[in-house]
Design brief:
By secondary structure, the chain is mainly alpha-helical. It has helices at residues 2-8, 19-25, 36-57, 69-73, 75-83, 86-89, 94-110, 118-125, 128-158. The two termini are 34 Å apart.
């Protein structure tokens, strides 16, 4: 959805990016003495590690007949392959982008049978304080990033 929003977003509106997208974009526009990006990265990694540890705990309970073993063995690679597909990255229109997002969501929904303990693990590992901090840092960094890009555009326009 972040990719689609970027297609139809105007310069005057701050894009509402996900934490993952923000982390993948990097901190090239954030001040060197600002530790917010590092803190956000560490919190997200800790949250994901706890969730993956819980999922691994229940891994042996998955039905081997449903074709999930490849995904469970290489969860991270499979996720990024799906999210970075050429079809999704090369979309030029909002309608085309949303159609691709729907396909990704459909593929993910089909895989729920492979990860039937996800909600259980999400509840077991949920930390409200950490989630609030992640949300606040994400909003703060999105705003800083947007302001930085606007400044750079304005400086470039003056040249």
């Amino acid at each position: 959805m972040d990719r689609c929003q970027m297609l139809w977003n105007s310069l005057d509106r701050v894009p509402l990016l996900s934490t993952i997208t923000l982390l993948r974009m990097g901190d090239q526009c954030i001040g060197q003495d600002d530790n917010s990006f590092t803190e956000l990265y560490e919190l997200a990694i800790e949250r994901n590690n706890e969730l993956h540890a819980c999922l691994d705990k229940y891994h042996n309970q998955v039905d081997k007949e449903v074709g999930c073993s490849m995904i469970l063995r290489n969860r991270t690679h499979w996720h990024w392959t799906l999210m970075e597909s050429d079809d999704l990255q090369k979309t030029k229109s909002s309608a085309e982008c949303l159609a691709q997002v729907n396909l990704v969501q459909f593929k993910c929904a089909q895989l729920r049978k492979c990860c039937w303990n996800f909600n259980r693990c999400q509840n077991e590992t949920f930390d409200a304080k950490a989630e609030l901090r992640i949300a606040l840092l994400t909003i703060q960094l999105i705003t800083q990033h947007h302001d930085c890009l606007r400044r750079q555009l304005m400086q470039a326009a003056r040249l």
